[in-house]
């Protein structure tokens, strides 16, 4: 029986287990958590509008599914083995790396030492506890106005209206990379709800008490970093060819060019799309098709272009924005309802 090891129980790793749960293949999934966690909702966990339980989904059960809980410290493609922090060594015929990402601090002094994060469940819990400890009138600075920063700022405003929320955005208007309609709508939403947006920002230093934006100093009681990601260190240390963001460049069938039994999916993979849970699931489906053909001794399939359905974001519980059908911009209650529906469907399917 083929031995497939999957590193990471995020959206991609979860999809792999779902597809193989009834197949005659031994699948071992390695993750630090004993359940799948909805990373797209970590902003709400940190803000306090969702509980820890709300972002958990049990891993699927299967005859040949095995779960190993631990931290991956080394991957050896030469020996087809993976090493965990507790000393465990796992051997594989095929390996899928889906370990996700961590914050990228762009060498800004103090950013790593003095900011909180929402990249992992553990970090989101710590961020929530820190927010709970703030006194009324305290200032929270969020560095990075991508999807995570925007959703966190709006959700935190809804959760703690007593706080002053400040959002640092490198662009001329928040989410300017999406569409003018979405960008203007979200920018105006923040203005109407007294969230202070610093556009065209260039954060140069973070301390325990302030954020420096060029020559300007902004006092803060707590700073949260949402200004970029990179693959986790154990993946970066593999030394494979990577793009400018540190993501591994792949052959057309999603494996590392040097090793046709080592696949990379999700935030660690270099693809012509922005990383997302949706993308990781599509990629996982294609890797399953490749593995099934490979194990059956068949010619590997020609993989179709991945077509994403779009993206949806929230502005609190009753407002939102999105891009669907490739380019159609949505704002208001409809995209927020659509996002709630997608989340409900995701949890019900699991």
Automatic annotation (TrEMBL):
InterPro entries: FAD/NAD-bd_sf, FAD/NAD-binding_dom, NADH-Q_oxidoreductase
GO-annotated biological processes: aerobic electron transport chain
Entry superkingdom: Bacteria
Domain FAD/NAD(P)-binding, first and last residues per copy: 3-274
EC number: 1.6.-.-
Enzyme class: oxidoreductase
A GO MF label: NAD(P)H dehydrogenase (quinone) activity
Cofactor dependency: FAD
Keyword terms of this UniProt record: FAD, Flavoprotein, Oxidoreductase
One Pfam family hit: Pyr_redox_2
UniProt record similarity statement: Belongs to the NADH dehydrogenase family.
Protein name: Putative NADH dehydrogenase
Species in which this protein is naturally found: Exiguobacterium oxidotolerans
Phylogenetic placement of the source organism: Bacteria, Bacillati, Bacillota, Bacilli, Bacillales
């Amino acid at each position: 029986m083929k031995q497939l090891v999957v590193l990471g129980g995020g959206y991609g790793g979860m999809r792999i287990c779902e597809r193989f749960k009834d197949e005659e293949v031994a699948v071992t999934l390695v993750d630090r958590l004993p359940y799948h966690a909805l990373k797209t909702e970590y902003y709400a966990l940190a803000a306090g509008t969702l509980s820890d339980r709300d972002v958990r989904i049990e891993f699927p059960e299967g005859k040949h599914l095995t779960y190993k809980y631990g931290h991956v410290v080394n991957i050896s493609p030469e020996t087809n083995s993976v090493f965990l922090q507790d000393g465990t060594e796992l051997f594989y015929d095929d390996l899928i790396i889906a370990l996700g990402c961590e914050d990228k601090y762009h060498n800004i002094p103090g950013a790593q030492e003095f900011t909180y994060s929402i990249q992992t469940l553990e970090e989101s819990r710590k961020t929530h506890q820190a927010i709970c400890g703030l006194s009324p009138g305290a200032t929270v600075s969020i560095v990075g106005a991508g999807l995570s920063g925007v959703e966190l700022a709006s959700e935190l405003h809804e959760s703690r209206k007593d706080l002053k929320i400040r959002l640092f955005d490198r662009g001329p208007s928040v989410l300017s990379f999406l569409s003018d309609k979405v960008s203007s709508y979200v920018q105006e939403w923040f203005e109407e709800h007294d969230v202070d947006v610093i556009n065209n920002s260039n954060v140069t230093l973070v301390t325990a008490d302030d954020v420096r934006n060029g020559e300007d100093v902004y006092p803060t009681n707590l700073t949260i970093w949402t200004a970029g990601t990179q693959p986790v260190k154990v993946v970066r240390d593999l030394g494979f060819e990577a793009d400018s963001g540190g993501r591994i460049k792949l052959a057309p069938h999603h494996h590392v060019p040097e090793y046709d039994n080592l696949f990379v999916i999700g935030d660690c993979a270099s693809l012509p799309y922005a990383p997302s849970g949706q993308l990781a699931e599509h990629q996982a489906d294609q890797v399953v098709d490749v593995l099934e053909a490979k194990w059956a001794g068949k010619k590997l399939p020609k993989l179709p272009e991945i077509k994403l359905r779009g993206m949806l974001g929230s502005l609190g519980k009753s407002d939102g924005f999105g891009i669907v059908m490739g380019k159609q911009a949505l704002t208001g209650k409809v995209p927020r309802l659509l996002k709630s529906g997608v989340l409900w469907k995701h949890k019900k399917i699991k």
